[in-house]
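Lab notebook: predicted structure, single chain.

Context: the supervisor wants predicted structures on file for every construct in the current expression panel, including those that have not yet been purified. This is the next one on the list. No modifications to the sequence; it matches the entry in the shared construct table.
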Amino acid sequence: MCNGRRTLIIFAAWLFAAQAQAIQITSAGQSWTVNWSYDLGTSGLLGSTSTWTVNYFSASQIVLSIDIANTSKLISKLGNADITAFGFGTNPNTRTSLLSAGNVFTRVGTGSGPQQTFPGGFKGINVCLFAQGCSGGTVNKALHAGSRDRIQLLLSGNFSGGVADLLYMPLKFQTSLGSYKSAGCINCPPVGVPEPSIAALLGLGLLLIGLSQRRVRRIVAAARR
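Prediction complete. Output recorded below exactly as produced.
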């Protein structure tokens, strides 16, 4: 396989991984970010960023810490922007309990049958974190813009295969303009930090491939002289 084609395949695989919306847990010590955003145009910008850390991993238990912040940008048209609930799916299915409740997220809904009913049409949500209910609640008990919270969870299940997947990761904003639901973006730049578009990343990859091939041709031409 030529160097240019190999580079393109590697780049495409990296790009796919960067856009994937699932995390595979295989050991303690893993850490990643999940960010949410919803652009309201001239009415404001909803955003949240979080850090997830695996504190413990065994064949039957996972201890997971989540540090979440509400980074929404309030303007005159957006009087409040609060986070009422967020959650995730698991594979295999898990039972989940709170080891350490947050100041806002003090309750957890868990179980695989039935799944947690998360608003916005999100399916397969095994774990939901909230103050009043997975479907929402009043904003006075939600995570307000500029605030943060930290939760530690115990996930119990059959992880004897050495792997557990966390999936989907939706979040609900309750605002003065209505409610909005957003899917989580794993290891993406937080709200306010420009993110390269897929087209731009592909363009950069093709440019690097072209430069690499040009360098190879020059080397070959010099060797023939």
